[in-house]
């Protein structure tokens, strides 16, 4: 018998396994996914979702969905709803739906405790003054003149900040740590700032808002999060995360960092994605060219393909760039097994079968999915006049062209072998119409003709054809790695990322296609019906081509 090899664990799985083995968490582990509701989730977030929910599933634990809503300026309820939809669609259920804003009162009390311990103070300095006092990584900072205010004065001022007595920017609450600490985040970081803005959940109840560093760890602690997983850039925040928890003497949660996912030919920050939406480079957050979960769903990606992608890229400790073709490979692999096959002609030219009776329709039975017999067969109407793909005919074909040309024979998928007799040209020299004869004994499945042909092409019966619009997508950016480009990424937008074909002919069964459920257009790729389909006007998105054509083009 084959030996069962244990699956190799990533570094986070190793940590969890060791913690459990040491008996640290008899109740099981607790993780959380903490998005800020300031945009739609992207594939990078999917990585974090799969990791957090995946660890809890694997080791027996739970995962909270916590909206990190401490910045009222950029956050909206629309984003909250989209995030919930996306996480659920990816296939995960959260133990609790929570909001950092629900902790505002507790966080305020925590801040009061730190003031009482002389570990926090109200600073009247301007943002510029504070920045200039911060020092540099090699030079120590200068203490603020307000650093030694009495506990009583700090308590009074902090209460009055809350009461709305001061305008934005007039005061901040800072932790009193060490102005010469080698880690700049430990040089008396901000805990609270004044912002007279309405919050999407708390309305006008608050005009002071906690900073990320003061809110995040305390929220983790309140929820009893055992493994707080975030991306590498928070590595330098960890000493501060630990400092607050230690000084407040609350549940000791631990932060672990992993490398964020960077994907080629796209950008992956909500702020940049919002810029693409606002500047109308794309038609919204779910434009199928976007790397958002909602765009991938609209484009025909499945939750399984995204989970599989996240599994394959693994969990790294160092930043790297993943080629977008790996994501495409994952959806192709999934759809090859699950998508039904149909015929659609993207660039049509008319083919007349001269010896086929006029007015006759034959229902040919074609397998829905050769990879899955249980999907059965469907009837596809065959008639004398068909559309075929323009590229499947050549007036002057080279030797190894196994499709149609004068005198050449080919099989029509699921139907008959035909031989080309003649063709007509338009005035501009393009092919207008092709004439061929069919061999009645060559019917697929009951072929007694003894003729062997090398090529098979797809077709659609003209009287039965449905016209459709098809949208083809390409890379959003023409540059591979945009992660270091900053705002310059806008200079690298691919002007040909969207191509619209407005006269595609598809077989009648595709009238029943469902939005977001991908099907295969034989020889052409995977496609799915778009939500823009209306009143019989079919719109399809190409999910992905059948083969990786991008790598070839680049050579
Ligand atoms: P963005 O810059 O896109 O807004 P963010 O990190 O600010 O990203 P949050 O909403 O704060 O977004 O993130 C929620 C969680 O998702 C965090 O734990 C964050 O570390 C994680 N995350 C965000 N982007 C990525 C990424 N590219 N790869 C892996 N995890 C990510
Ligand atoms: Mg953010």
Question: Any key phrases for this structure?
Answer:
24% strand, Ribosomal Protein L25, Chain P, seven-stranded mixed beta sheet, 555 residues, binds adenosine-5'-triphosphate, 3 domains, binds magnesium ion, Rossmann fold, alpha/beta
General shape: elongated
**Biggest sheet, in brief?**
7 strands, mixed
- Contiguous uncertain segments of 5+ residues: none
Q: What integer is the average pLDDT?
A: 96
User: Biggest sheet: strands side by side, in what order?
Assistant: 12-25-26-27-23-24-13
What gap, in angstroms, lies between the N and C termini? 45 Å
- At the first level of CATH, the class of the largest domain is Alpha Beta
Radius of gyration: 31 Å
**CATH homologous superfamily placement of the largest domain:** HUPs
Strand content: 15-25%
| Helix segment tally | 13
**CATH-level-2 architecture of the largest domain:** 3-Layer(aba) Sandwich
The percent of residues in helical segments reads 25-40%
**Ligand identities:** adenosine-5'-triphosphate, magnesium ion
Alpha-beta content class = alpha/beta
Question: How many domains?
Answer: 3
Number of strands: 27
**CATH topology description of the largest domain:** Rossmann fold
InterPro entries: aa-tRNA-synth_I_CS, Gln-tRNA-synth, Gln/Glu-tRNA_Ligase, Gln_tRNA_ligase_bac, Glu/Gln-tRNA-synth, Glu/Gln-tRNA-synth_Ib_cat-dom, Glu/Gln-tRNA-synth_Ib_codon-bd, Rbsml_bL25/Gln-tRNA_synth_N
EC number: 6.1.1.18
Subcellular location: Cytoplasm
Keywords: Aminoacyl-tRNA synthetase, ATP-binding, Cytoplasm, Ligase, Nucleotide-binding, Protein biosynthesis
């Amino acid at each position: 018998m084959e030996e069962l090899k244990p699956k190799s664990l990533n570094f986070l799985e190793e940590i969890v396994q060791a913690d459990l083995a040491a008996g640290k968490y008899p109740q099981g582990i607790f993780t959380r996914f903490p998005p800020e509701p300031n945009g739609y989730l992207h594939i990078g977030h999917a990585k974090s979702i799969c990791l957090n929910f995946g660890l809890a599933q694997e080791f027996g634990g739970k995962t909270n969905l916590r909206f990190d809503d401490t910045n009222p300026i950029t956050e909206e309820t629309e984003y909250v709803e989209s995030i919930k939809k996306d996480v659920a669609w990816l296939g995960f259920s959260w133990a609790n739906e929570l909001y950092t804003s629900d902790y505002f009162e507790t966080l305020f009390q925590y801040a009061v405790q730190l003031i009482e311990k002389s570990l926090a103070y109200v600073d009247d300095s301007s943002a510029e003054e504070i920045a200039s006092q911060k020092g540099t990584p090699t030079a120590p900072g200068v203490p603020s003149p307000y650093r030694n205010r009495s506990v009583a004065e700090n308590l009074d001022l902090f209460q009055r900040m809350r009461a709305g007595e001061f305008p934005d920017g007039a005061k901040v609450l800072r932790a009193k740590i060490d102005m010469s600490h080698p880690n700049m985040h430990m040089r008396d970081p901000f805990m609270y700032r004044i912002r007279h803005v309405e919050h999407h959940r708390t309305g006008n109840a608050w005009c002071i808002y906690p900073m990320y560093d003061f809110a995040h760890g305390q929220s983790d602690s309140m929820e009893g999060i055992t493994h707080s997983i975030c991306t590498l850039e928070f590595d330098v925040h960890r000493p501060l995360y630990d400092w607050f928890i230690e000084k407040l003497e609350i549940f000791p949660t631990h932060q672990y960092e992993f490398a964020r996912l960077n994907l080629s030919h796209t950008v992956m920050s909500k702020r940049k994605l919002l810029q693409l939406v606002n500047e109308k480079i794309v038609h919204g957050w779910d434009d199928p060219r976007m790397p958002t979960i909602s765009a991938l769903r609209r484009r025909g990606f499945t939750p399984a393909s995204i989970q599989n992608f996240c599994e394959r890229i693994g969990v790294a400790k160092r930043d790297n760039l993943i080629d977008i073709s790996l994501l495409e490979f994952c959806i192709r692999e999934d759809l090859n097994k699950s998508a039904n096959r149909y015929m659609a002609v993207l660039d049509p030219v008319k083919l007349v079968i001269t010896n086929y009776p006029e007015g006759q329709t034959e229902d040919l039975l074609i397998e829905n999915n050769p990879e899955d017999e249980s999907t059965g067969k469907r009837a596809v109407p065959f008639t004398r006049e068909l559309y075929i793909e323009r590229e499947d005919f050549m007036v002057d074909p080279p030797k190894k062209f196994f499709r149609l040309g004068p005198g050449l024979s080919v099989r029509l998928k699921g139907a008959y072998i035909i031989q080309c007799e003649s063709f007509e040209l338009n005035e501009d020299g393009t092919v207008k119409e092709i004439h061929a004869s069919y061999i009645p004994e060559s019917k697929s499945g009951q072929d007694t003709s003894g003729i062997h042909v090398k090529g098979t092409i797809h077709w659609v019966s003209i009287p039965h054809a449905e016209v459709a619009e098809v949208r083809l997508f390409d890379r959003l950016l023409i540059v591979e790695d945009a992660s270091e480009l900053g705002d310059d990424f806008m200079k690298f937008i691919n002007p040909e990322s969207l191509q619209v074909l407005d006269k595609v002919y598809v077989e009648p069964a595709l009238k029943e296609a469902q939005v977001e459920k991908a099907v295969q257009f034989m020889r052409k790729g995977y496609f799915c019906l778009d939500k823009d389909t209306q009143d019989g006007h079919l719109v399809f998105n190409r999910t992905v081509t059948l083969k990786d054509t991008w790598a070839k083009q680049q050579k």
